[in-house]
Specification:
The complex is a heterodimer of chains A (52) and B (292).
Chain A (H helix, E strand, L loop, with lengths): L6 H24 L2 H9 L11
Chain B lengths: L1 H19 L3 H6 L28 H9 L8 H14 L2 H5 L2 H9 L14 H4 L2 H16 L9 H5 L2 H14 L1 H5 L3 H19 L3 H5 L2 H9 L7 E3 L9 H5 L20 H5 L5 E3 H15 L1
Antiparallel strand pairs in B: 1-2
Classes of the chains: A mainly alpha (52), B mainly alpha (292).
């Protein structure tokens, strides 16, 4: 499918995805998701290491 | 020349691992880093319970947010994954993933007759998409009751967590050691199986099981970093596929979802017909400078 897309179309998709990622990160920050990530990452994840 | 570029990639993999897992006290004291940088995800499969980890694992974080029950969609982690995928695609697998590096090193052990793909390769390749959808998205999001709040992929499959997080913590932390049981033994067996397979086959975990590779592969055809084949120079000798650890027919599908951008095809091409979007850009830039 991607072979049928012109370089110009691919560039537009890339640009759209960059904008989308910025918007998603911003929305996530507004919803307080980084705190959830931090709480999980800053404590030993027992399931991840095969304990929990 | 061939060897030099391969060695360079391994140095980059090692340097990236050291840079993102540089909390030395964690290894010495059997504890993990708790600084604010752990709010940010690294692009590769890097367990955040690794004693040295300075950042968060994207797959672990995705499940943590999905199974927290507070958010409809994990915008923050999806946003980071979209950015990583859009810029680099599976370049991350080839150059920046610690577990990819481990598999590369294991495959260099000259223990047995090597093969590129496992039997049933054609069908097994789809397994990673099943793992992504079922273990990373559906189960963490929909599981209720006693099963809620479980990072399914991390708990039952992830060998990176066992190797980078579990084993160092079991060695260095008495409390963790005394808590090991059936689940730890299960994860150890999964790890042993993948280690054994990695000695014989190239990158079996990346090919068949990794949900992160499955996700980044979707971005490969349109990511900023791409492979380009000069069709007028290519003689279709198949030399690129022969050296490719992922067995990609580079001359046909240079931006296949399977390509990890290791660059072996570029070294092997007798006509120099394969390049990357970055090299092309760099070439244009230096050409402009020379013209001025």
């Amino acid at each position: 499918m991607s072979r049928n897309l012109s370089e110009k179309q691919k560039s537009r998709i890339r640009l759209g995805l960059v904008v989308l990622s910025v918007v998603l990160i911003g929305l996530g920050i507004m919803q307080g998701e980084p705190a959830t990530v931090f709480n999980k990452a800053a404590n030993i994840c027992l399931e991840c290491i095969g304990i929990g | 020349m061939k060897k030099k570029s391969g060695v360079f990639r391994h140095w980059v993999q090692a340097a990236w691992f050291a840079l993102t897992n540089g909390y030395v006290s964690g290894y010495l004291q059997g504890k993990i880093f708790t600084g604010k940088s752990k709010t940010i995800c690294v692009p590769g499969l890097n367990c955040y319970s690794c004693p040295g980890a300075l950042y968060a694992c994207p797959i672990g974080s995705l499940q943590a947010v999905l199974d927290s029950g507070s958010f409809k969609l994990s915008c923050y982690v999806f946003g980071m994954l979209t950015a990583f995928g859009t810029f680099l695609g599976r370049f991350i697998c080839g150059w920046l993933c610690p577990f990819g590096f481990v598999q590369d090193m294991l495959n260099k052990i000259p223990l047995k007759k090597k093969a590129k793909n496992m039997p049933g390769d054609r069908y097994l390749r789809y397994l990673k998409y099943v793992v992504l959808v079922l273990f990373v998205l559906i189960l963490p999001y929909f599981a209720k009751g006693d099963l809620a709040g479980t990072p399914w992929f991390c708990k039952w499959i992830c060998p990176s967590g066992t190797l980078l997080g579990g084993i160092p913590l079991v060695i260095g932390n008495e409390g963790v050691r005394s808590a090991t049981g059936i689940l730890f033994r299960w994860k150890l067996w999964v790890l042993i199986a993948i280690v054994w397979l990695s000695v014989k086959y190239s990158r079996p975990f990346c090919k068949y099981l990794c949900p992160l590779g499955a996700l980044y592969g979707i971005f490969n055809p349109i990511s900023f970093y791409r492979l380009k084949v000069d069709e007028t120079a290519c003689v279709k000798c198949g030399g690129c596929q022969k050296v490719c650890p992922m067995d990609v027919k580079t001359w046909e599908t240079p931006n296949s979802a399977e390509c990890i951008r290791c660059g072996k095809c570029m070294d092997a091409c007798p006509k120099g017909a394969i390049t990357t979007s970055a090299r092309e850009l760099w070439g244009k830039k230096s050409g402009l400078e020379e013209a001025q």
